[in-house]
Design brief:
This protein is of the alpha/beta class. It has 16 helices and 20 strands. The longest helix has 21 residues. It is globular. It starts with a strand and ends with a helix.
Length: 491
């Protein structure tokens, strides 16, 4: 039985961040993961000359991200090549009004380019009342102070925005779809308004997007190597069966192959529900705590295509189609899953990472085309795929010209648990991140990294942290690292 200072379960962005920082600080760390390499859901795939993730990703913010703080702290900034969105374009947005007319906007938040958003949203310069209302709302969101934002965690993004008064339909759709479902993979009638405002402010500050040569998964592979370099152990293709508890304290873990490893601190990146219910066991926690953890809401999932093309198609890394009314409510996604309706106005994401250096064979692209859906691994993708193809034909018809698509792969919710958190509850497992940033579980109400069991911590999207996807997980990783170091210094 090997002994460690800390055992980290899961080498996703949060687990890798915490493990690498602790190892860098001189702690003996064991990092375990069920996948063949680090990265979690964002693990980089290398196939037929392409390097890509299984699912689409947008890294925000562009500048001064926690990714850069992590690589510099570990002294690995020269081992990962940062690609800035400014160098390749942020993206292009398409808005389809109720009459089927489509307008577009090449994103940019600097004057005078930002004025082009008016045409994109169908607002004419002489629509003075609409312009004033848009400016008033945007100004309010942009200037809101932290203490004001903290008061907006008991109201949904949709309810709060609608409370600000009538506004142009395109502007409302853009805000709710972008800073609700787009940022947090959750309908804006469930996303906490405080999260929407924080993300709006980060984006308006000119965040843009960023990427890493070799893929986001490669970034975490490089960071995870710190564990080995500092005398710890990194075990891939290793599933943890259980977390051991002795006299009310963490004592180690046991793998499915029967190996036992000891440590006074265990950090789980396996999901808070999976950790409490499956890896530890309900009997070790108070009933109220277990019930709250079980009741936590998952965010949505995505389903769609990966197209491999024989020639370039997209000129922007991110393209989004916003049909009027696509700021859907949660109940609409539930109705589609029950078969009571079909996707008719969903937000469609069309993107590629092949524009970046050394990510694809010359003249070829891997293109993601996805929409949101419920996180059940059993979701039937057929109606979503039909809807995606109809929408993509409106904004990138050249993709479907003869001979352009050389290979097609389908992304479904069924493949997500294999890379991310295990599916242990009905309807759960396909979620894009984990625990949603929704009412009652976002901001101050977000589950804490510490658990009632001494020495057991949760890391990743399920505990603390703020940001878009991977950035929230890395933020959680920094916070958990600080908590564990403080604990060890007091011991």
């Amino acid at each position: 039985m090997k002994k460690y200072d800390v055992i980290v379960i899961g080498a996703g962005p949060g687990g890798t961040t915490a493990a690498s920082l602790l190892a860098h600080s001189g702690k003996k760390v064991l990092l375990l993961d069920k996948n063949p390499k680090p990265g979690g859901r964002m693990m980089t795939i290398h196939k037929d000359g392409f390097s890509y993730e299984m699912f689409p990703i947008n890294c925000v913010p562009q500048h001064n991200s926690l990714f850069e703080k992590l690589s510099k702290t570990l002294g690995k900034q020269d081992e990962v090549k940062l690609i800035l969105g400014d160098d390749f374009g942020i993206g292009k947005l398409f808005y389809e009004n109720e009459n089927g007319k489509i307008t577009s906007w090449r994103m940019g938040y600097q004057f005078p380019g930002v004025l082009k958003i008016l045409g994109f949203l169908g607002v004419k310069p002489w629509h003075f009342k609409s312009l004033v209302q848009m400016a008033r709302v945007a100004g309010k969101l942009r200037s809101m102070r932290e203490e004001e934002i903290n008061e907006l965690y008991q109201i949904s993004a949709m309810e709060y925005l609608d409370s600000l008064g009538p506004m142009p339909a395109g502007f409302r759709t853009f805000l709710l779809a972008t800073f609700g479902e787009g940022a947090f993979e959750m309908p804006s009638d469930h996303v906490a308004a405080g999260e929407m405002v924080k993300m709006f402010q980060q984006t308006i500050a000119g965040s843009g997007g960023r990427y890493y040569e070799g893929g986001v998964g490669h970034f975490f592979e490089v960071m995870a190597s710190t564990v080995l370099e500092k005398g710890g152990d990194l075990q891939m293709n290793t599933r943890v069966k259980s977390i051991q508890i002795t006299n009310g304290k963490v004592s180690g873990v046991t793998t499915e192959s029967g190996e036992t490893y000891n440590a006074p601190v265990v950090i789980s990146n396996a999901g808070i529900r999976q950790t409490v219910v499956k890896l530890v066991g309900e009997e070790f926690f108070e009933k109220d705590y277990v019930e709250r953890i079980k009741a936590l809401e998952s965010n949505l999932a995505c389903v769609g295509y990966r197209y491999f093309t024989s020639r370039p198609v997209l000129t922007e890394p991110m393209n989004v189609l916003f049909p009027e009314g696509c700021a859907s409510k949660y109940e609409e996604f539930e109705a589609i899953e029950r078969g009571e309706s079909k996707p008719e106005r969903g937000y469609i994401y069309l993107g590629t990472t092949s524009l970046y250096p050394n990510m694809a064979p010359v003249g070829q692209q891997v293109i993601y085309a996805v929409v949101s859906c419920m996180p059940d691994p059993k979701v039937d993708p057929k109606c979503y795929l039909e809807y995606i193809e109809r929408g993509v034909r409106k904004i990138a018809p050249e993709l479907y010209e003869p001979g352009v698509i050389s290979r097609t792969e389908i992304m479904t919710t069924a493949i997500v648990p294999g890379l991310g958190n295990d599916a242990i509850f009905p309807g759960q497992g396909g979620e894009s991140y984990g625990i949603a940033n929704s009412l009652g579980q976002a901001g101050p109400q977000r589950p804490k990294a510490e658990t009632p069991i001494d020495g057991l911590y949760i890391v990743g999207n399920d505990a603390e942290g703020f940001g878009l996807g991977t950035h929230q997980a890395v933020d959680s990783g920094f916070k958990v690292y600080e908590k564990v170091m403080e604990r060890m210094e007091k011991a």
